[in-house]
Amino acid sequence: MSLSLNPTSFSFFLFSLYFLSLPVGTSSLPVVGITYTHDPRHDHDHTPPSHVASTVHSLKLSAVRLPESDPSVVRDFSYSNISLLLNIPNSLIPAIASNRSNALRWLYHHVIPFYPRSKVSTISVGNDILDTSSDLADFLLPAIRNVHLGLRDLGIQKISVSTTFSFINIMTTSFPPSAAEFQEPVSELLIKPLLQFLDDTNSSFLINLYPYNVYRLNSEIPIGFALFQQHPFNYRDDLTTGVRYRNLFDMMVDSVISAMAVAGHESIPVIVTETGWPSSGDASEIDASPAYAEMYINGLVTHLSSGLGTPLRREGVAETYIYELFDRETRQGTDSGRHWGIMYPNMTRKYNIAFSGSVTTGSSRGWVRMVGGLFTIVALWLLQ
Questions:
Q1: For a Cys staple, 278 with which of 21, 85, 153, 288, CB 3.0–4.6 Å?
Q2: Are 162 and 144 in contact (CB under 8 A)?
Q3: Coil, helix or strand for 163?
Q4: End-to-end C-alpha distance for the chain, whole angstroms
Q5: Helix %, strand %, coil % for the chain, to 5?
Q6: 53 within 8 A of 82, measured Cβ to Cβ
Q7: Beta strands of 131-259 (E only): which ranges?
Q8: Which residues of 3-23 are buried (b: 16+ CB within 10 A; e: fewer)?
Q9: Count of H helices and E strands in the chain?
């Protein structure tokens, strides 16, 4: 074997080294966050809000959703580098829709005193109004636009505005995803105009998505399919697209993506604003258990950290918020027997869940490819 430096081969070698030295492109992993509801009206809520930011940081979570958007809690996340998803209560939607000054008043109270020290990323105007306040549907889009314009009036460009829906209240089906559409008449009257707004403003579609609820409504769904369990026959095939689904979460997400595509907006990012599994329920909820709750959350985090996305969307969801940080006696006044928290109110952990350790997954694979490619090129050059 000769080691003489042929000018042509040496130039090829240098070019190859330069090419491999370029940054390796990787798709960013979904943000995993948590929902924190501060409600001082409940005597059992013993968690000091000032301790929540440090608790979230200790869990290595990077985002928090605040359904109540209490200004004192928003302030407590100053300089934490934890992104916040705020929510405007349903009850304020008519007033904000009627006058932009009302939107500005809310922003001056909940955002302006703290931003950008508190890293507000998204504002949801209302939460699941079709379930609890369907009479407000006509006011929703004008309210969203007024909040968006209010932010622009204040010179804030980096906070997106949307609203939050519930999967069960807007989808026609969860399987097969290729057949999924948004329910009528809400699709034509509300969701399609909203999707156009989201497209125009580079905002995300927000949805509460609970495999637990779909599993309870469909007895043919195996519990392992809902809990991310990897079994040989634990899958469902969409015969129209030829796609194989190995968990219920992906199937529900792709149903939303398919419905958006049918509506003409296939590329809008999806944020799962609520998902989880209860550790307890009423007498009829035999699958609401600590063991299943831990399996679901661990499976979800592992799946999101894998970087695999969903079958229909390589990058998957943009963000996912687990419901919720601390146990409470009630969930929005219903489900009186259910507990959803990953921690007890005294701030001790219920489960052993690792929320970190996945941030370098994509780049590590990239470096492995780069080093392997480098060795290959060196070997080829030496053999010339």
A1: 288
A2: yes
A3: strand
A4: 8
A5: 40, 15, 40
A6: yes
A7: 160-166, 205-208, 236-238, 243-245
A8: eeeeeeeeeebeebeeeeeee
A9: 15, 10
Taking only the tens place, the pLDDT of each residue in 309-367 is: 999 999 999 999 999 999 976 545 455 578 999 999 888 999 999 887 444 333 333 33
d(CA 102, CA 155): 17
Residues 6+ apart with CB under 8 A from 114: 71, 74, 75, 77, 78, 120
* Global pTM value: 0.84
d(CA 144, CA 44): 34
Structure token digits, residue 328? 């409470």
Question: For residue 273, what is the enclosing H or E element?
Answer: strand 270-275
Residue 377 to residue 128: CA distance in whole angstroms: 56
For 25, the token pair is 């492109």
pLDDT tens readout for residues 265-315: 999 999 999 999 999 988 889 999 999 999 999 999 999 999 999 999 999
